[in-house]
Amino acid sequence: MIAGAGAAAAGIGFALLIIVYFVVIIGSLVMTIIAVVDMAKRPDWQWKIAGQEKVLWILLVILVNPLAILSLVYWFNIRRKLVAVEQAAAAGQFGPGYMTFGGWVPGPVMVPVVPSVAPPGWQPDPSGLHPLRWWDGLQWTEQTWDGTPT
Description:
Elements: H1 2-41, H2 44-50, H3 54-63, H4 69-90, E1 97-100, E2 103-106, E3 121-124, E4 132-135, E5 140-145
Antiparallel strand pairs: 1-2, 3-4, 4-5
Helix pairs in contact: 1-3, 1-4, 2-4
């Protein structure tokens, strides 16, 4: 009877070991995927200002990541630096910049160019007092033309 109880306990212990093994492997895989997605979505300027290399960290986490140790190092150390850079940039601490779909980008502010409604030239007079008035591309001028040759 004692030998049978020992064998049953060994069987239960082995089953628990297998379950823990699969939980650790699946948890490592999930953490690796979460870390790689977070790394890939961050713009290059964040990595540069934080003093880190984006490609290096992605390769390390994908290729050399037993038990998600490097994923955890990224998540609790490197990611904290990247978030701090993102928040500082949004507050304007790195000088002028502008927002894009990917986030804040340092550099000169991009002013959208709005084309004029019509190119400069003789256009029908909006006041109706003359047949044509000169449009300089931005505003109406005082120059008018009645259509008679000069």
